[in-house]
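User: Can you recover a sequence for this backbone? Please restate the input before giving your answer.

Assistant: Of course. Working from this structure:
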């Protein structure tokens, strides 16, 4: 496989803006081009989209897939770094770092990895784990399995098998507090301290 530099291509209106991105092509089978600023690799006798260091990935408008297989970057300005069968769709700015069968489907939704995780509302984040759903705006799930923010905005989940039931709250299975203060002196309102082993709020 040979590499054709942008500077060697005819400079037309369509290639001017596309000159900002890399193109790798088979030297004879396909003419070099870039589709709507997506990363393109052409080779093997076909003009398949974005197979750079990967297999059978598909890019959309203004998207990037860095590697992996069977990934689909369908939302504008989205990125899939790798993994297998991950999908960005719907609105722009979604990001999936890796993993398998993960979905990011709204503005700036992020899935860090894991499997079968879905970030489906604006600014939602799932760091990893298995089978988690962040569907409340600005909500997040650290990891674990079978968690759901249940459309509760700004809900945060740390653990497994948890379903959020109110907004702007953090949910855990169990909580261990290390080095808890034993006096309220200097603590701001809302802080928790141990009053002879009784949890007290300032």
């Amino acid at each position: 496989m040979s590499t054709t530099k942008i500077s060697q291509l005819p400079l037309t209106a369509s290639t001017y803006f596309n000159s900002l991105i890399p193109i790798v092509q088979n030297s004879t089978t396909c003419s070099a081009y870039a589709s709507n600023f997506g990363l393109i690799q052409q080779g093997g006798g076909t003009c398949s989209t974005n197979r750079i260091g990967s297999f059978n990935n598909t890019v959309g408008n203004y998207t990037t897939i860095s590697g992996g297989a069977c990934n689909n970057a369908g939302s504008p300005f989205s990125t899939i770094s790798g993994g297998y069968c991950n999908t960005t769709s719907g609105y722009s700015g979604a990001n999936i770092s890796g993993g398998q069968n993960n979905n990011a489907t709204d503005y700036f939704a992020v899935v860090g990895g894991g499997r079968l995780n879905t970030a489906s509302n604006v600014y939602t984040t799932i760091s990893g784990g298995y089978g988690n759903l962040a569907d409340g705006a600005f909500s997040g799930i650290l990891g674990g399995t079978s968690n759901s923010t249940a459309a509760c905005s700004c809900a945060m989940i740390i653990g497994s098998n948890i379903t959020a039931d109110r907004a702007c709250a953090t949910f855990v299975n169990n909580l261990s507090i290390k080095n808890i203060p034993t006096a309220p002196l200097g603590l701001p309102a809302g802080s928790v301290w141990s009053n002879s082993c009784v949890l007290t709020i300032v």
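That completes the design. The radius of gyration is 23 Å.
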